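Blinded run. Sample ID left blank on purpose so nobody reads anything into the name before looking at the predicted structure. Input follows.
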Amino acid sequence: MNKTVAAVLIMAVLFIYGCAQPPEAEQQPIEPEAAQEGNSQQTIENTTEAQEETQETITEKIHEPEKTTTEEIQKQEEVKTPEKPEEEAFQIFNASLTYPNAYNGPLYGTSEQVGGTGMDSYFELLDENGINYFIGMFAIFGEQEAGILTSDQNLGNVIQAAQRHPKRIIPFFNPGIGGEEIEEEGLLKTSLFGWYSDALVSSKAIAGDNFIMGLGEVETQEWSARHNGPKIMELVSLAQSNNINFMFHPVANKISDVEKMIEAYPNTVFLIHMYREDLDKSMPQLIKIMKEHDNLYYSIDAAHIMHIDGDVIYEFDSTNRQSSIQKFVSYYDSKEKIFVKNAIDDYKPLVEAVPDKVMWGTEIGPAYAFDPEVFNRAVKASRMVIAGFALEHQEGVAYKNALRVFGEGVVADKNIKVIDTSSWPYCTGSQISKCDGGCIFDEEESPEANRCLLRCTIPLGCVEKFEMDVG
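Blinded prediction complete.
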């Protein structure tokens, strides 16, 4: 083989071998120094460009944070904070007990005396009668103390009820001492204001500023003092300074005092009810006052609807519960048409004159009256009376006026501890005597004595039996 052919074959083999390698594996031919310097420079430039590209990429990812205002930081924190679940809206409901020729829609009770029965059985009555909301006139006697709140009395009773039934209770309160006793013992001039003030301040500290919604019922009908006398106006001032409502019971010969009261406190909402005789005597003047002032409202109550020569429900109150129930039922069933007609005739002028300012309640106080046989009849009579008003006024009186003015009920903090005493027995006489011996105060009936007694009976696991007033 000549040299020319051999050279051609060697070149062909080298060419084929080079084409078979991947591009990345290609070997650069070895060149002189100048070429080597050029390659080094190119490599440096390529490396620099790659580094710059990498740096740009990093810079894009890790950039200097923009300046953030305090407001934006707060907004970011708000977003990070888990949102509280929205409170479930209260669904207004109708009664399961309905009657022919009666208003059968929802009700809002604006004058509810709640001390005569347990709250569980009371809500059963409310539910079947379609009473969605109620202003409860609870007894809270003087300063309240966390740690000894019990479900059977005072603030503990209100809190536990509101915890179990959110948005249904509008809590008002009074000391739980009747107007007659306050008058007889001169308490209006001595202890009454302090009891109200201490109860309100301590209740707010425990349950929050927006839990207690009013003072009342203030039984001014039993007092010799003028309705706008200085001691009563102190109580109104207490309500005004705490931005809560005021409920009281005026009489006909002091109706001018009512106007002076509401004019002195134009930003306070006043709620009243009256005996039928007092309403009849003062109707024209009352209507005038209500038309000229935005802060006075009237509650038509079942206890005053069932009226023939007096409020029937109180006339049958006695120490014999069953006898009271039987007498009331017999009387009601025989007289229903009479007192329903009379009530429509008496209340209709007020409703027609100020339809947006008249409400409804029960004002049922005696313990026997919370028996379903009695309570349900009282609501039935009320529904029949409401049906006697113009159709366009019925819902307003029944619930819409009160809902507009007083709103839905409160929501109680479920973390507030209330000792559930519903299953506890009554304390024995010897237990109470022993506790009383360690709770000696200048005034036997005082908030201090009551708190001392609670501190003694709670460890014993028993409750004091309260005597209900009769008549």
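Unblinding after everyone has recorded impressions. Residues 73 and 79 are 10 Å apart (CA to CA).
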